[in-house]
## 1
Amino acid sequence: MMMVRKSKGLGERHQKILDFIASYQREHKHPPSIREIGIHCGISSTSVVNYYLDQLEKNGHLERDRKISRGMRLTGNTPLGDMFRVPVLGVIQAGEPIPIPSSDFNTFTAEDSIEVAMSLMPTKEKGKDLFALKVQGESMIDAMINDGDIVILKPAQDAHNGEMVAVWLSDRNETTLKYYFKEKDGYRLQPANPTMKPIMLKKTEALEIKGKVVMVIRKVDRYN
Amino acid sequence: MMMVRKSKGLGERHQKILDFIASYQREHKHPPSIREIGIHCGISSTSVVNYYLDQLEKNGHLERDRKISRGMRLTGNTPLGDMFRVPVLGVIQAGEPIPIPSSDFNTFTAEDSIEVAMSLMPTKEKGKDLFALKVQGESMIDAMINDGDIVILKPAQDAHNGEMVAVWLSDRNETTLKYYFKEKDGYRLQPANPTMKPIMLKKTEALEIKGKVVMVIRKVDRYN
DNA sequence: ATAATACTCGAACGCCTGTTCTGTGTCAAG
DNA sequence: CTTGACACAGAACAGGCGTTCGAGTATTAT
């Protein structure tokens, strides 16, 4: 009954156009013209570009200011400017396992997410597969992280000494954020607050590193 | 010798054009045309707009892609996209007074500053006269703020109970970040970490509120 | 006063750009 | 096979838009 040409919603060309607009805008700070889109996407006719642009507008991926040159803008979670979008996968709390990114967490799930300015991002892990978690409860206080804070993590299964990691201690059924140190007899999980004592783990105890902490953001609007 | 028409660097019209471009871009996600600038800035001729645009380009406030419609972009500290630029006025540490914004801190001082996504901003204090300070030393640990953290503040001389404020205790020659509570016999400055004891102040002791904490950002790249 | 400089206007030129129309080839349903 | 929706190309049109030029008006220096 229903005919499917290439894929259901977005064809390869739709995606290519969308990507080009985003990269062009990022570089030039203004959208491309129809003809420029055509050239860079291998479309020889302006009418075809217009054809796709109309579809993208119908699907809600794009907004157009008709009659205005370069009058288009990407909608939805395509951050313009120099910022990064990080999906908030869930909450992190002491007694619960850590949600980690699934394979297809980059899909069009317009789930909850936050935007972070590129210029704030440490090192060059600019927006690989970063993800964010909202801290629930006050169990991370010894990591100097409060209830309601947002932690941005980079997925990882292991870590170097001195890195702050999110770990799941299955033996203790506990999630925690600590500085990671491997020692001869096991592991040491050091709180950020030097006045607090580290957790010492024997090699036999399970320790699952879920990610490295890249950034912590605390919005202080808990007053009224 | 030197002739000064209106002001030295930027005339009123230059500023008006700059502001219009910024607001137009923020709303439409693409730059305005020369004619649009003319209309909204009270300039009847496109050549005059072009005239000012050339000057702005020469002064480095603008970049132009000649021959390309709407081919202009603001340079310097004019964040595109939906983000906010907050100037970093200095450091905050226990033994030093708190730098606060001067009257003309919005001028073209291309000093150090950070960008924060609009969507991260609490409440509607979107970028009034916010400013940021870099925390130096570990004296703010009881506010769950670590060495190297960036705190974003809103200027204030007083506060409501329960708000986190940056205060300067001149009697003790001390700067600190605490939750503020006014009590019958004085003030109570409560650390964020509930396991730590508050500072009790008599009414006679000087307490200068310098700002309210709006946000805390911690970049965790202290590993290599 | 005179000249120089800064600023403003209006109009015209021509490329840039979005729009529209006609035509072609493909593929699946009837 | 025929039909029709779909994907695409090319050309032509009209208006958008940056550019340029000639000219007029202030303001300032000499």
## 2
Amino acid sequence: MLQRAAHLLRLSAAFQVAHESDVLELAALAQFRTLPKGEVVFNQGEPASSLFLVETGLLRVSRLNASGRELTLMLGGPRQLVAGVGAFAPGAIYSASCVALEDTLLLALEAAAVRQLTYRSPALAEAVLTYFARRHADLLARMEDLLFSDLNARLAAHLLDQPFSGNGYALPTNSDLAALLGTVPELVSRKLGEFYRQNYIGLHRRSVQILDEGALRRLAGRQGLY
Amino acid sequence: MLQRAAHLLRLSAAFQVAHESDVLELAALAQFRTLPKGEVVFNQGEPASSLFLVETGLLRVSRLNASGRELTLMLGGPRQLVAGVGAFAPGAIYSASCVALEDTLLLALEAAAVRQLTYRSPALAEAVLTYFARRHADLLARMEDLLFSDLNARLAAHLLDQPFSGNGYALPTNSDLAALLGTVPELVSRKLGEFYRQNYIGLHRRSVQILDEGALRRLAGRQGLY
DNA sequence: CGCATTCTTGATAGATATCAACCTCCGTGG
DNA sequence: CCACGGAGGTTGATATCTATCAAGAATGCG
């Protein structure tokens, strides 16, 4: 179990370059946990007691705003760290909520312990600081995208970024897509319909295939994000 | 000079809780620099060789997007750190540009040296990590605000957040305000006009006074940001 | 005083959000 | 096996907000 935890830690982008002894110390503090689909991992505003590394499954981190709209900040799949920044926040309060979108197996690390270890180990501090800086840059890019590109561009970019394994990408619900793209379900439905009618995509039973990649790239107008 | 640098470092939010010996080491690496108003400090995409601590004056950090719109990410006044996150970015590339909005006196710290020091000193690592986490949370709040509140709310919040020292807040140009609020100059002009006509604010020669704080708070619909 | 920048304002276009109605699909239980 | 119910999807009508373009007015600086 400890070996498995160490293995997962070594694979993660956040801890990748940390020293081996740090990895082992982290692994000793870690606990595997299984979550059924739909389970809440943490809620915005709660004390940030843990951070999480996904082994298998998928987590969604999102913020719910006052008027009921939801914005998905990140999807955490295998090897991804969730609540990494939150665990270092002053006051250590989660600034978003997290739910399992699928049955998920994850490694939970106690936030306070990780903080102490990180402060003391140069290699770990380097890994974590670099990870934070990257997340910051990603967030800036995302913000700019949400602010300055229109929904056609965001949806096109999202579709292009899906790994089209075999035949088609199974769409999440329109609500979920809307939360990812920063809009509402109705507009997702409309835009998907438009793309379909213009033969940019094939669409059958919530399974999408890209038919005209050039057109989508033109709409996206930039390198992929999401 | 070294004492002055150390003093400034101790006052900054980012390095505040660091150990005294770290402060002295940082101070030894630091150089004061004076910039005339309008001077470019760095440009997006350049190698991030330095980070900056403002002693007096004002810096603007902003991103210019493909279609020519500008978004101001932060204003760095006295005691504030600029490019702190960028200096730790993988590849160490500035992810935004920075200009002096006023004549500015700042302390320049060599990024590579700061990184090394930060990795090695637990107290400094803690200060910097905490600072990063706070910036991350701030950025999330800003993003949500730009996405989900309308311009009335953003402008009202901005006005409420100004320190109304004595009689009135001297507005920056409409372009500058637009970059702060994520919109275009014309709309800033219109909204300011509306607020004035409804007697929410007094407006004379680019100097604003709040006349109806309640109305502005209602528009803002939340605690201040900006 | 004249020039250049910025500000203001109207007209208009376009994108996004909202509300409501209806439809489709799918699983469940009678 | 079929009927039912509910969640999610689609679509139209409409409102609102934001952006754009262009012209003229105000302002400040040399």
